[in-house]
Design brief:
By secondary structure, the chain is of the alpha/beta class. The protein has eleven helices and twelve strands. A hairpin with a 2-residue loop joins β7 and β8.
Length: 366
């Protein structure tokens, strides 16, 4: 892994256990859940694999236990207790404990974490492995974005940062190679990450310009609809609603990528991370569009593509020169499949077919 690694994935995929295993290997304290049945009570730590609980041993490359002098300092902030200072902390953990002192309000402790990381960056701290479970806890959006920048700066100073997150503020499509997605399907674990060479420097710059943290929510979705522009992003939720579905409730993200030429870039990242998606774009109008459409097909790798003829506005029945979002609301305010044009219905149906259910489905509108 590189200096920064962001773990994402649905609940139960193993993000916390992975952080706990790393903490155990480096620091030797039991950070991984012990099975309740006591079947392996004689071991210090275990990890769940499918239906089995397997013991893990603390190993040190090139160093015979218990000599840990060559191991880097490791601090692990777990979501359930990282806001309460623990004993015997060092590095970042010791700084936080000195600032917070006794248990305090969650918000104050969260703000103290930001302050501590800032102080460590200013002091030039190095040689530490920092593990954080959900660094976004209790932080307002602005503080989340600031902490993300601080963590990157801390890593660039000679440290390693790994965290699990549910916040798009801690992901960046331009740094896609830092994202590791964990999935659990039918009792089997899968770990995916993108090839660092997927995007050229020019393409990364384009994504950095087009993709803010709000668009990064696509990495958490159960299905993604990739669209060209703002009109599609704002109008499609009304189409879903007309057909009896709430995209947010069903974990579906409708993501505008800043133009047709960026669709292959986003599609490539989602495909490599194993996140289901559908691509929606207007029909080609010139040879340049034809080349772009070929690139979209190649990047999609078999994912559904809905090609709107001649374009989104016409397919949705919207007039070009009026407020198109208001038109969409008025056009699709009546529920029922019969009120939705065929091309628009295809977008919804293709997305629902691709959507990977996680737990209880709550998004159906009766």
């Amino acid at each position: 892994v590189g200096p920064v690694t962001a773990l994402i994935g649905p609940r139960g995929a193993g993000k916390s256990q992975l952080l706990g295993a790393i903490a155990w290997l480096l620091a030797g304290y039991p950070a991984i859940t012990r099975p309740r049945n006591g079947a392996v009570a004689s071991v210090s730590a275990v990890v769940r694999y499918g239906d089995e609980w397997l013991p893990i041993e603390r190993r040190t490359a090139g160093v015979d236990p218990p000599d840990t002098a060559r191991l880097p300092a490791c601090t692990f902030f777990r979501a359930r207790d990282r806001l309460v200072p623990a004993a015997a902390m060092h590095g970042v953990g010791a700084r936080l404990a000195s600032q917070v002192g006794a248990p305090t309000s969650d918000a104050a402790a969260a703000d103290a974490l930001v302050s501590v990381i800032h102080d460590c960056c200013e002091a030039g701290s190095s040689g530490e492995v920092l593990l954080i479970e959900e660094p976004e806890l209790q932080l307002i959006p602005q503080a989340q974005r600031y902490l993300y920048r601080l963590l990157r700066r801390f890593a660039e100073g000679g440290n390693q940062v790994l965290y699990s997150t549910r916040s798009p503020a801690f992901l960046d499509a331009a740094h896609h190679h830092e994202i590791v997605r964990l999935d659990l399907h039918a009792g089997r674990h899968a770990i995916r990450r993108t090839d660092p060479a997927t995007l050229t420097d020019e393409e990364r710059l384009r994504l950095a310009a087009a993709f803010d943290h709000e668009r990064s929510e696509m990495f958490f979705a159960q299905a993604v609809v990739l669209v060209e522009g703002q009109t599609e992003r704002l109008a499609l939720p009304f189409v879903f609603s007309a057909m009896g579905h709430d995209p947010d409730a069903e974990g579906i993200s409708i993501v505008e990528v800043g133009g047709k030429s960026n669709l292959p870039l986003a599609a490539s990242l989602l495909r490599q991370l194993g996140i289901p998606f559908v691509v929606v774009h207007d029909a080609d109008r010139d040879p340049v569009d034809s080349v772009t459409e070929r690139r979209i097909r190649e990047a999609a790798g078999g994912a559904p593509i809905v090609r709107l003829v001649p374009d989104f506005e016409a397919a949705a029945g919207l007039r070009r020169h009026e407020d198109k979002v208001f038109q969409a609301w008025r056009r699709f305010s009546r529920p029922g499949r019969r009120h939705v044009p065929a091309q628009m219905a295809r977008v919804v149906e293709a997305t629902l077919a691709e959507r990977r259910p996680q737990g209880r489905e709550i998004g159906r509108i009766e």
